[in-house]
Amino acid sequence: MEKEFKSGFVSLLGRTNVGKSTLLNSLVKEQVAITANKSQTTRTAIKAIINNENSQIIITDTPGIHRPKTKLSKTMVDTAFTMMSEVDCIVFVIEATSKEIGKGDRIILDKIIELKKPCILVINKIDLVNKEKLLELIDLYSKEYNFSSVIPISALKDNSDVIIKEIEKILPIGPKYYDEDEYTDQTARQLAEEKIREKALKFLNDEVPHGILVEVEKFKDRKTSKGEDIYDIDATIYCLRESHKGIIIGKSGTKLKQISSCARVDLEKMFGCKVNLKVWVKVKQDWQENDYIVNRFKLK
What we know:
Layout: E1 6-14, H1 20-28, E2 46-52, E3 55-61, H2 71-84, E4 89-95, H3 103-115, E5 119-124, H4 131-142, E6 149-152, H5 160-170, H6 188-203, E7 213-223, E8 229-239, H7 242-249, H8 254-271, E9 274-283, H9 291-294
Parallel strand pairs: 1-3, 1-4, 4-5, 5-6, 8-9
Antiparallel strand pairs: 2-3, 7-8
Helix pairs in contact: 6-8
């Protein structure tokens, strides 16, 4: 007898820098979310589509929960909480090194308790603690909520199949919402913007990254003289201060060249063709408080 097809929506939640984006990429086996060793890397709801023989999982990586200080960060937190109420299942990611339920995790946990939605607790970075500490953490959270399952994971091992199977148990019978060859709802322009920002996060110091915004002004495909496909991409990195502009560009433009070069290599792999990438740096003060810009990060 043929198995019934299941589909539904899942929200990936957690504090900043707990590894949600890395986990999302692992689940979908494509890079749909940028990753960096910086907090607040994810700014908006990034949707990934996981297509299996008997299921389609639409899973959204949400901005990490943090204390908002600007209109942008408030929008990020609002996005995360809004997604919680609109899904069939929540995947709550915490760190194995936690000794207690911290403020950020408590806010998320209380919202899960309020919504009473099916929730899978994923404990990340278990390679950093011993078994005894892990069991204590599992017991601590299990007393707070009746999780559908608790899955300890490590970056050293791919646990994506286990998580997907647990999600499938929760999802209702439903249709395919997306074509089988789709793995994200992001446009090519958005993927390019995020890839450039990822490289900026990687190569810049802690003072600058959260104040940058990447906008692609030109995204055009054409043929080279040899008949090969090529994308012409013009992008601008906006920053908050003139001093930050100098840091991003670097001495004799070395830092900007490093960011652009690494982004171009990744974009060529992503798009499967040559990329002609040009990146500029401009100052746009207080863009994080600009309603027109911040509205781009709101749920549509």
